[in-house]
Write a structure and sequence with these properties.
This protein has helices at about 5-25, 30-35, 50-55, 60-80, 85-110, 130-135, 145-155, 175-190, 200-220, 230-250, 275-285, 295-305; strands spanning about 40, 120-125, 125-130, 140, 160-165, 170-175, 250-255, 260-265. By secondary structure, the protein is mainly alpha-helical. The strands form four sheets. The protein has a two-stranded antiparallel ribbon. Strands 2-3 form a two-stranded antiparallel ribbon. α5 crosses α9. The radius of gyration is 34 Å and the shape is rod-shaped.
């Protein structure tokens, strides 16, 4: 756990604690999912805070295991690149965005089924339920929307990184893995509800993540408020110093207990009037050194000192 970045580690811990709390409270007759899960916005138990709380709840061990495994695998890398603040903002924002898209999908289903015209719903098998109670069952939980957004971020940051994914016996580039997941989720969403998986929420998280990353790339100054990753900043500073050294002909100077810095090479002074010096040298060759005037001797002496 010590090798996992701070924010990824905290998200893992919070999700597992919420999972345990859900299980313990359920034994005592308290339905945490009903309280904190994201209800359809037209249901009586809907609250705005559920757009945040729903992503920390899970429906079973398999559900939370695969979500947290993906968060650990890809989130740790993305956080090291972006830093904890930007990573957390991205994670929460995409989770909220996933919930928003899921609400839109549920509303489309609500209209398509004509539930606004019926007071009761026939669920089959002789079971009839009030429409209001039926809508209250449309509850979304899970970190999948945010996790899928993290997967997208990894694919956009390291598009050509090769990954081994079971059951494929060969490595797959991250960008193609992301495209594959999008295709699967899109096909599943268009196939209609029934498997109990919020495929539109997965796509919603990736959609919001894509928009956010594209915006940050076009407006890099907008990311400054999150602070910089110290490790990335170190390498950026090293690269900047190397470039300055290469361009300006500077050299390293290391002094004890002082951060390495640069010392400028003293610029070489410009040569004096070369034509005048050449004339003095010609005069020496023809008539000897003694034929020089006092001023010519001084100029020649000054020139020899500069060289």
């Amino acid at each position: 756990m010590n090798s996992i970045p701070t924010m990824t580690k905290n998200l893992l811990v919070v999700n597992f604690l919420a999972f345990v709390a859900t299980w313990v409270l359920e034994l005592r007759g308290i339905d945490l999912t009903s309280m904190l899960g994201l209800h359809f916005f037209m249901a009586k138990d809907f609250h705005l805070y559920q757009f945040v709380t729903y992503m920390f709840l899970h429906g079973g061990f398999t559900h939370i295991f695969f979500n947290m495994f993906a968060l650990w695998m890809f989130g740790a890398v993305v956080e090291r690149v972006w830093g904890p603040k930007k990573f957390l903002f991205y994670y929460i924002s995409c989770g909220i965005g996933a919930g928003f898209v899921q609400e839109i999908a549920q509303y489309i289903n609500y209209v398509a089924l004509g539930l606004d015209t019926f007071e009761r719903v026939n669920l089959g098998g002789g079971t009839i339920m009030m429409t209001a109670d039926y809508l209250n069952l449309w509850t979304t939980i899970g970190a999948s929307g945010a996790v899928y957004a993290i997967l997208l971020a990894f694919g956009m940051i390291f598009p050509n990184e090769r990954l081994f994914i079971i059951p494929f016996p060969f490595p797959i580039k991250a960008k193609w893995l992301v495209v594959g997941y999008i295709a699967i989720e899109l096909f599943s969403a268009l196939s209609g509800p029934g498997d109990g998986v919020a495929h539109t929420a997965h796509l919603g998280g990736m959609l919001f993540g894509f928009i956010m990353i594209r915006y940050w790339r076009k407006h890099p100054e907008s990311s400054n408020r999150f602070g910089r990753n110290r490790g990335q900043e170190f390498f950026d500073n090293m690269k900047r110093r190397f470039d300055e050294r290469k361009q300006n002909g500077r050299r390293w100077v290391d002094e004890p207990d002082i951060e390495p810095h640069y010392r400028e090479e003293p610029p070489k002074p410009k040569r004096k009037n070369q034509e005048e010096i050449d004339a003095i040298l010609d005069k020496i060759r023809k008539s000897g050194y003694d034929s020089l005037t006092k001023e010519e001797k001084k100029k020649l002496f000054d020139q020899s000192q500069e060289n």
